[in-house]
């Protein structure tokens, strides 16, 4: 029996964040997520979707002739067949990234994949879902992301960067202001004042397409 996944959408756009920001990328958005972050911008991926085989997904991705592929959600790792999908995408020669909430085990993910792992701040309303065991799994190919809602969130994130030595474990430590909740200029000022070893990101897709599906 063919391995299948429930897919919300597959589309070609510009990467809006993380290490490959601005680069043309195919996004494979899996359906479903066990978290309910208060700032979620992809609630349309919580349910519905279309059942597709790995072969169908790979054929759709190949039709765009991409260099970069991002598997996202929802929470992709909530579907067990995400693991063989990531492996198959790497085998096909793409540069693959995975966007994950950080609530599920990242250890089974192919090491060729750049795992973009969230650490949920108190302001997310899901801080209790962080799986801190993932921090020991990080490599220089991986990225850690904080979405910052307030000064309290920022101070909490700084404490986690220090506690887990994230700038040494991961290739990138990323901070984004929660859109419409925190001014990017405020976050930039705090990072500069603390000489923090992180990259500020502004989620390009929000400024270009205002979170419209398919972008």
From TrEMBL:
Binds 1 S-adenosyl-L-methionine per subunit. S-adenosyl-L-methionine binds at residues 39-41, 74. Residues 20-211 form the Radical SAM core domain. Pathway: Purine metabolism; 7-cyano-7-deazaguanine biosynthesis. It comes from Geopseudomonas aromaticivorans. This is 7-carboxy-7-deazaguanine synthase. The keyword 4Fe-4S applies. Substrate binds at residues 14-16, 29, 72. InterPro entries: 7-CO-7-deazaguanine_synth-like, rSAM, rSAM_QueE_gams. CDD domains: Radical_SAM (cd01335). The gene is queE.
């Amino acid at each position: 029996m063919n391995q299948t996944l429930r897919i919300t959408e597959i589309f070609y756009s510009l990467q809006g964040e993380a290490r490959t920001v601005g680069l043309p990328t195919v996004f494979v958005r899996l359906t479903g997520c066990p978290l309910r972050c208060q700032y979620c911008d992809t609630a349309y991926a919580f349910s519905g979707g279309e059942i597709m085989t790995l072969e169908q997904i790979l054929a759709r991705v190949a039709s765009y002739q991409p260099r970069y592929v991002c598997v996202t959600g929802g929470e992709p790792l909530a579907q067990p067949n995400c693991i063989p999908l990531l492996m198959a995408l790497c085998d096909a020669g793409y540069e693959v990234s995975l966007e994950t909430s950080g609530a599920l085990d990242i250890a089974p993910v192919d090491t060729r994949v750049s795992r973009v792992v969230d650490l949920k701040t108190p302001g997310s309303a899901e801080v209790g879902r962080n799986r801190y065991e993932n921090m020991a799994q990080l490599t220089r190919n991986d990225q850690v992301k904080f979405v910052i809602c307030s000064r309290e969130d920022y101070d909490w994130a700084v404490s986690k960067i220090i506690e887990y030595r994230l700038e040494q474990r991961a290739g990138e430590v990323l901070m984004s202001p929660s859109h419409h909740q925190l001014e990017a200029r405020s976050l930039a000022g705090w990072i500069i004042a603390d000489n923090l070893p992180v990259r500020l990101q502004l989620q390009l897709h929000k400024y270009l397409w205002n979170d419209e599906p398919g972008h």
